[in-house]
Amino acid sequence: MRGASDIAGTAFAPTHCAIGATALRLAASLRADAVDAAIESGLMAFSPCAECARDPAVADALDAIAHAQARLRTAWAARDRYHAREARIARRERERAERCSGAVAAPPGPAAPRPPLPAAVASVLARAKAKAAGQ
Fold first, then answer.
1. What is the distance between the alpha carbons of residues 61 and 20, in angstroms, rounded to a whole number?
2. Which of 7, 21, 69, 128 is buried most, with the most CB atoms less than 10 Å from its CB?
């Protein structure tokens, strides 16, 4: 793996602006598999100007930069989801442990009185009991 100092001495094709030169340097870092150096050089904040987008000398570099930016954003989002999942699992384990280590549940007290049956239901029940007793 080459470092940024190895790439700094590389000659680049002349471009019309500094942004194009930056694109070529970043692309060279990516080709050299010096992703850390490219990130430190501003890979994720890089945005080409309109002139660079039309420059055929910079087009391949811009494609490589856009591809690397997308890959890194995807990887970082996956890492964030993983960390969020780990935090969620840890929180649930703590909550479960708190519930299990809590005081033993108090024995059930006297049952709450049942509300009275509605009049229509009480009369149907009384008829059914009377009919069952008459058999």
1. 9
2. 7
How many helices (H) and strands (E) the chain has is answered by: 6, 0
* Residue among 13, 18, 26 nearest 51 (CA): 18
Query: Position of tokens 């591809």?
Result: 67
The answer to whether residues 64 and 70 touch, using CB atoms and an 8 Å cutoff, is no
User: Is-contact 38 26, C-beta < 8 A?
Assistant: yes
Q: How many residues does the chain have?
A: 135
Reported as a single tens digit per residue, the pLDDT across 51-68 is 887 888 888 899 999 999
Q: What 8-state DSSP symbol labels residue 17?
A: S
- Its pTM surpasses 0.85: no
Q: Which of 37, 36, 27, 32 is nearest to 4 (CA)?
A: 37
